[in-house]
């Protein structure tokens, strides 16, 4: 990611980041402050990255996730879009982030609950642990394989924008949803999964 694209990306996120969750009314967004903890990366050569493509499926065997992936952009108010509240809930990839498997932090969001339809696709995201595997299938037929490095639950008011969106020198993945105590129709916290790529295969 170039310096300019990174700055635009982080600024858009910091303005008002989507929380990736919904209660009965749909908890759309939470403030994201810049200056969160930096992601550190080893100096080892990263794996070969796929060409720019679109993620179409996300599998997380450890928590039973096998979902299509839709594309998400920015809403009119400048917040990151969220997947619609439907009975057939699915995850969404923020299309201004890198393709999963390319250098940089690719961001996928999902709901923890979907109003009257019950549990969301990321309802068990906080159960992931270091070492768990994640697979993202791309439209071009390749799959990017990731390993969870950490799982964090953070207050929405203290969202670690730099740690989630800042530059890294290898392919990484961020999965984001809501968590923590409920307040009205929403949640007070975000659950963020950090993962690093270890291979790309066909």
Q: What does this entry show, briefly?
A:
This protein is mainly beta and 202 residues long.
Your description of this structure?
This protein has 202 residues and is mainly beta. The protein has a single domain (3-43, 53-201), classed as Sortase (Sortase, Chain: A, Beta Barrel). The protein contains two helices and twelve strands; from the N terminus they run H-E-E-E-E-E-E-E-E-E-E-H-E-E. The protein has helices at residues 3-15, 161-165; strands spanning 17-18, 29-30, 32-33, 55-60, 65-72, 91-94, 104-109, 133-138, 143-155, 159-160, 171-183, 186-201. The strands form three sheets. The protein has an eight-stranded mixed barrel with strand order 4-5-6-7-11-12-9-8. A two-stranded antiparallel ribbon has the order 1-2. Strands 3-10 form a two-stranded parallel sheet. Strand 4 and strand 5 (65-72) form a beta hairpin.
Name the descriptors.
202 residues, disordered N terminus, two-stranded antiparallel ribbon, 12 strands, mainly beta, Sortase, Chain: A
SSE blueprint:
Elements: H1 3-15, E1 17-18, E2 29-30, E3 32-33, E4 55-60, E5 65-72, E6 91-94, E7 104-109, E8 133-138, E9 143-155, E10 159-160, H2 161-165, E11 171-183, E12 186-201
Parallel strand pairs: 3-10, 5-6, 7-11
Antiparallel strand pairs: 1-2, 4-5, 4-8, 6-7, 8-9, 9-12, 11-12
